[in-house]
Amino acid sequence: MAPEDADQGISQRIFYIHVPIALTAYFCFGLGAWKALRLLWLGEERYDLESYVAIHQGTIFGALTLLTGSIWAKASWSVWWTWSSRQLVLFLFYCAYFMLRFSIEEGPRRARSCAVYALFGVVLIPISFLAIRLASDFVHPVVFNLDGPQMSGTMFVTFCVSWAAVTSLAYVLYRIELLGKRIDVGLRELREALQ
Amino acid sequence: MSYAADVAALARKDLKVELRTRDTLPAMLLFVLATLVVFHFALPTNAADDAAYGLLWVAIVFTALVGLTRAWVPEHEHGVLDGLVLAPCDRSAIWLGKTLATLAFLAAAQVVALPAFALFFAPLGAPAIAGVLLADVGICAVGSLLAAMAAATRSREVLLPLLLLPLAIPLVVGGVGSAVSSEPSRYLLFLGLYDAVFAVLSWASFEYVVTE
């Protein structure tokens, strides 16, 4: 079992949920952008759905990051919100992605527009990090810096285990949603063929 | 025709259309002045200059949005975009021409807005003006691509601000930083980086947005 943090006590334990969820959200956004790039490059239609589902999962995990971050901020700094959150800009961006997706007629044009927007999102991630860092907001603790992770061995192991768990959960959810969406598409095609 | 000649011809076309119809620039000018007047009454009398610099950036982003919302309307109303896409020129030239034209409108609006801001609120130094120019490039580069994307949707006027504002947040950080910070150079550098990255991305991906 990981030891209790000397400075923050029990509240530090939310770290093992908050950070893996945040990393998984970025992973999902990255996966969505990778699929989007494949769509633009190869023009295969199936990547559209894969990119959309990955971004959908990323947005869900992004919302959870905001929630757990807010709980942690309340426990550690007794405020519900600090403007150090890097996720809010991305969360807004990906909400706009869904607005874009739902206001274009289904087809190759929608697939390509959404793919381009997804690529913008993955470029915005480092740019917005840099912007928030520049806005001189150093309240957010930085656990991973250039010297490696700033935590003890058992803490790091616990962190890795929960990270693996959250990533596997995200992957399973991704596959299930993708399967559901594909069945939906198949059913719709069947219905159209029968009519 | 070379690429540069295509771009120049497309940008000239937009400026000519604007000179004849006067649809966009007067609207942007009036909007930015009205916004500054609203801000004067919105700010408490003893508010610091820094707050005014922040509001200047709100005004700049919204004025750019007014211009960008109109940017592709003539193309869509008369089916010009289909003709442009079919024309024997690189499609990214269409994006670059539109970006340059929008940049010209935004710069023209700021020629009036920035002196008005200095008169009403607080003086603007050279780093602040450099920040405005660099951010203009970023807003117009990203904005003309997103405006083309939004123009093809059902809810174009509503969608464009939603698509653009999250992407404009780093520009606002850089712009406000260059006006209020004692070390403006790193903010200007950041704005330059943003412009370079997003201009290349928009340039490379425009083709996918306009082709059927």
What is the overall number of helices of chain B? 9
Overall, the morphology of chain A is elongated
Poorly predicted runs of chain A are: none
* Rg of chain A, Cα atoms, Å: 19 Å
Mean pLDDT of chain B: 91
Helix content of chain B: over 70%
- Main sheet of chain B? none
Strand percentage of chain A lies at: under 5%
| Domains of chain B, number | 1
Helicity level of chain A: over 70%
Note the main attributes of this structure.
heterodimer, A: 195 residues, mainly alpha, two-stranded antiparallel sheet, 5 helices, 2 strands, elongated, B: 212 residues, globular
Description:
The complex is a heterodimer of chains A (195) and B (212). Chain A is mainly α. Chain A has one domain (13-140, 152-194). Chain A has five helices and two strands; from the N terminus they run ααααββα. A two-stranded antiparallel sheet of chain A has the order 1-2. In chain A, helix 1 (15-42) runs antiparallel to helix 2, helix 1 (15-42) crosses helix 5 and helix 2 packs antiparallel against helix 5 (153-194). Chain A is elongated and about 65 Å long. Chain B is mainly alpha-helical and 212 residues long. Chain B has one domain (3-211). In chain B, 85% of the residues lie in helices and 0% in strands. Chain B has nine helices and no strands. Chain B has helices at 3-21, 25-42, 49-71, 73-77, 80-86, 91-120, 126-151, 156-180, 184-210. Chain A binds chain B through residues 40, 89-90, 92-93, 95-96, 99-100, 103-104, 108-109, 112-113, 115-117, 119-120, 123-124, 127-128, 130-132, 134-135, and chain B through 142, 145, 149-150, 152-155, 159, 162-163, 165-167, 169-170, 173-174, 177, 186-187, 190, 193-194, 197-198, 201, 205, 208-209, 211-212.
